[in-house]
Each structure stands twice: as C-alpha cells, then as structure tokens.
Design brief:
Length: 219
C-alpha cells in the first residue's frame, strides 16, 4: 500500500451505479412535460452533476418562467420507480472497491445526491454492503456542493484522513473540479466524458474501474 494513501472516495452516480442514463431520461421527460422540450442528451449537457436546486435554476432560465410546483418532486418519484426497474452497478465497481479495502485503504462515497438516494441506489445495485453506515456523504450535508471542495473535505475529516492522503474516483468535470480544489488526487472514469476532458480538469483518466487498483499503486 502506498504510504501516503489513506482513503479512496468514490462518487456514486456514474461511478458505482449506472444511474445517469436513467436519471437523464426521466429528467428530460419531466422538463418536456413542463414545456421545456429536452432530450436525454440535452439533459446530460445542461444538468449533469448538478444539485436539484441548480437544475431548477438552469431549467427556469432556459424556460423563461418558473417550473410548475411539484415538478422536481414528481421527477424524484419517477426516477426512483425507474431505478427500481433497471438500475445496475457499473461493471467492475464491486471488485474495485474490494481491491482497495484488501490493500488496507479506507473507502467511502461522496455524492451530489441526497443520502436517501445514495442508500437506495447502492442497495438496488447490490453494493451497499461495501460501505460502513458512516461512510456515505452527501452534498446536502455541507454549505456548498460540487464543484466546491466542501463535500470532499467533510468526507475526509469524518473518515479521519488528511486531504493529501485521499484519492477520488469521479466521472464529471464538476466532481473533478471539487476534488482538485480539495487538494486530492483524482481518477477520472471516462464512461460518458472524453478522457481528454477529464484530464484537462485535473484527473488521471481511466476507461474501466478495473484500472483503479493499479493506478493507485495497490497492485
């Protein structure tokens, strides 16, 4: 185990669970119903990685008026139903987390989403058992979500690891920006973004989660 590595922080959506295509399709349908025609690809481009409050602000900016009351509540309900039908783990997620743990390095999850959503998606994907009860963190627990560093600092402090001894596995520029600002090493899982885009943001890009242990020097 590298002497300077104490904790690996995994993002949830798009890194551990393959939730992004589901979320974006449901969001696109919700916004279209509200009068803002949106495709799944447009939902990715405009809203990926955002807090729901930021999604609302951006959608209202594009729409030119407030979204209907309850629309985002309906979106969360519809998204949960879709998750229960088709959500799966990202290939290699379990093996990557277990390899880190086997090397004696701590693991946790830090997500832009609410804790209840992280609990649900990890459970549905069969990954919840990999993480201790106190090892799940949400942007809703800190003053500012990603791209600010607050969430990663909070996770590291709670887990008892100095930022410089942490590595983060992220898949979005917003998340990478937050981890870099927190002073942490970043691995960029290039599932939906171009490797060059993630590298330009400050991450070491990978194409498969199977690469995580080797990139971290864990074997």
């Amino acid at each position: 185990m590298p002497a300077d590595l104490a904790l690996v922080i995994f993002d949830c959506d798009g890194v551990l669970v393959d939730s992004e295509p589901i979320s974006n399709a449901v969001l696109a349908a919700s916004l279209t119903t509200a009068g803002l025609p949106t495709s799944a690809d447009e939902a990715v481009r405009e809203y990926k990685g955002m807090l729901l409050s930021d999604v609302r602000a951006r959608a209202e900016q594009l729409l030119g008026r407030p979204l209907p009351d309850g629309l985002l509540d309906d979106f969360e309900r519809d998204r949960e139903e879709a998750f229960r039908t088709s959500l799966q783990a990202v290939p290699g997620a379990r093996d990557a987390v277990q390899a880190v743990q086997a090397a004696g390095v701590g693991v946790c999850v830090a997500s832009q989403g609410k804790l209840e959503k992280t609990e649900l998606t990890l459970t549905l994907a069969g990954l919840r058992d990999l993480f201790a009860d106190g090892a799940l963190f949400s942007a809703y627990q800190v003053p500012r979500g990603k791209p600010h560093p607050d969430l990663f600092w909070h996770a590291a402090a709670t887990m008892g690891a100095a930022p410089e001894r942490c590595a983060v596995v992220e898949d979005t520029v917003i998340g990478i920006t937050a981890a870099v600002a927190a002073g942490m090493r970043v691995i960029g899982y290039a599932a939906a973004e171009a490797p060059a885009t993630l590298e330009a943001a400050g991450a070491q890009p990978i194409h498969s989660l199977a690469e995580v242990p080797a990139v971290l020097g864990l074997g």
